[in-house]
Structure formats: C-alpha cells, structure tokens
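[Automated response] Your request has been received and processed.

Submitted sequence:
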Amino acid sequence: MLAVKLKLFCFINFVSLLLGSSPVWTASVAVGNGEVSTSIDLRMPNVQPQIADSYFCRALKMNAETYITGFQPKADMEIAHHILIYGCSIPGSEEEEAWDCGEMHNQQLEQAPVCQEGANIIYAWAMDAPALHLPAGVGFKVGGDSGVGWLVLQVHYKSVDAFLPPKNGYDNSGVTLITTEKTQPRRAGIYLLGTLGQIPPHSTTYMETACSFNEPIVMHPFAFRTHAHTHGKVVSGYRVRKGEWKEIGRKNPQLPQMFYNITHPGMTVESGDMLAARCTMVNNDNETVSIGATSKDEMCNFYIMYYVDGEALAKTSTCFTGGPPDWNWSLLSDLHPENAPLNASVVPGTKDLLKATQKFFNEVEKTIDRQRQMMRSQFEGILGAFRGFRGSRPFAAGAAAAEKDFPRGENDLFNVDGMQSDDDENESESPFFRSLFGSDDAEDGRRY
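Generated structure:
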C-alpha cells in the first residue's frame, strides 16, 4: 500500500511539472501505531529575484486539520539569507504562485503583504541551521478549526548575484514539513521578543525588551532561536518571576540560527511572569545603524518555541519595545533590572563582558537633572548674596538712576521685580530662574 501511495504522489507531481506548474511535493510514510507521517515540500517555484534584499512569498492552503511535527530546511545560506513560515487566516495572495512581500518592489511579481489577516510565525531558519523535530506529542496545529487556513513561505534574498547575468540562476529554496493528521495532545506555538531602535557609530549598545505575561495558560518553552545581522554578538532571553531572573537561552547569533534546547529544561512561563530579552550590538562603523528589513539594517529577535497542554495558545505572541536610545530595562521597575544576570552580554564560551557604551535618554536626563540641581544650588547662593547687596544704599542709588534712564520691562533679564524680591516669596520661582532651570510642572513631566 505504501509503495502505491508513493507512486501516486510522484506521478501527480510529474504530470504537474510537465504542465508547467510548480507542485508542492508530498509523500506519506507509516510511522507505527496507525499514524501516517506526511512530508510536504513547500518551496519557491523557481523564482529569479533581481533586486537585493527582496522578500518573496508563496502560500499553501491547509484544509484538513493537520499537525506539523518537524521542519527540514531545503536552502543554502549563500542564496537565502533567512526563511520564515507564517500561519495566516488569509494570505497576502491566493491567486499568485509567488508574490513580492517585501519593500524592494520587484516588478516581475505582484506586490502584497505576507498575510492579510491572522499572521503568526511558525518557523524560522537562517545560516544553514539543520532540521528541527518537535518533542513527542507536540505539533503546530494548522487547517481545520485552528484559525490557520494557510501557510506562507517567505524567503529573504540578501544578495541576488546568483540570479543576474552571467549566472542567471533560479531558486526553489523552502522547507519540507513533517506532518500528521493524528491529533497531538500538546499544541506548539512561537513567542517573539524584539526591539526597534538605533546603534550609534563606534558603540556597544544593549537593545532590550520586556513584557508582562498575563495569559491564562502555562507555557512550556522547549527551544529558542536568536536572530541578528552582522552587528549582533550576543542575544539572551529570560523569564522573570517575582524579581528572579532565569535564563531561557543565550547564543551568539553569528552561529547557525537554529532552534536550540533551552538552558533550563522543564521551566514554565505563567501568568504574572515577565519575559525579557537583550541583543548586545557592536557597531564599529562610522554610521548609525537602525532596525530594519534590509541587510544594511539590523534586527534584534529572540524566539521562544513552546507548547501548551490542550488547545489554547498565547493570544499575544509578540513583545516589542522602542529600543535604544528611548527604551531599556530600567524603565520597568517590576522587572527588577538590578537583578539581571551579569552574563547577559557575555558571548557563550568566553568570559568577556561586552559593556554598553551608549547612553539611553533616561540616563542622560538623570545626568542633566543632577547638573541642573547643582547649578540651582549654586545660583541660589548667588541670589542670596545678591539680595544682601541689593539692600545696600549704593545699590539703591544706582538702581534709581538706571530706572530713570532705562525703564524696566516685565521680561527684562535683570528685572528686579521679576526676581520677586519680596521677603515672603521665593527667588527660585521667579520667571528668570525658571527660564534657566525649567519648571517641575511642565505638561509632559519633563523640565526644560
């Protein structure tokens, strides 16, 4: 029976190829206990991108309830910079065999988003990462009533040299999905932490993110993956429970960007916990580098692959912050950033701590506030001395003469009345003083 099925699948795909279409290759294998494992080869239909940093997508309709239990990449990092598989309720295109789902606007393909509705990342690959097989009884549920009616393959082509003259090549990068229709007791999901932000030239920068986890589920992380471009040196992720930090994973993103086993197998993430991640970036260039989609930009991503007992996954599957210089861990007191592990920015396998050299806005503001307070104290001393001198007879005579020749205006810099000289008023609240040191009652809470 198995031989008959294999021959049938091969025949159908061979006919499809002769007719000019690019099939999604499938094959079924019995794995015991009445369970049949089906391989679905989801790959690009021999595309030829012409612009660097192109993103191409291809969709696959999933009708019957199916569980994905493994991923076998079919790609070369010299061709495909990275690959993502999304679960969508509605894909960016249902009609096109492949479409342009990036920002480069390749004219040979239709332009559309990855998903029109219900986008969730299911799998990610880069840098020649090997195959991934989920733990027994764990699977990504797609098709049926899962809310994932379509799978969308996205491939990022950082370089297109292989497709331009004289090579004029074509690409069919993709992933072979190992699936079964047998219900799996544990449902898999992906939780993604990341940041926006900028990395100044000649700096070591911490790009940090953190969010509260308030889902009515117990999440069981079993694998993690890091992603950054050339400036990334360490990416680390943590669960924080009542101020105690516990490492989920830490890796050098320049190594194969596969899903690795977590640091502490058996750990859980529960309602009330917090999730945090840091990307340590080193920019030796002369220009600021920003988070973005092209190879000239950077990315800061920490993926958590987890399972739940039952059906319910986390309703919120991402945690993103503005990143540096606007945001860092110190802005969340509930996170207890003072307890963050010192090795969060230590490259695994070394003892070298990469210390941040970039200052965040809140740190700069604290420094400015301290300087303002110091200047304020010094100026109050000067005002006190000036007030004593102002009461002397020589000053009174000189002030009367000046008033006669140069009448005072309300906003004059040395308007004595503007300094509020009455004994029952405070010089530090004068318009002149506020113009120097700002007011604490500014609308946005800052002092200018």
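Summary generated for your ticket: Helices lie at 2-18, 361-390, 393-405, 431-437. The longest helix spans residues 361-390.
If you did not submit this request, please reply to this message.
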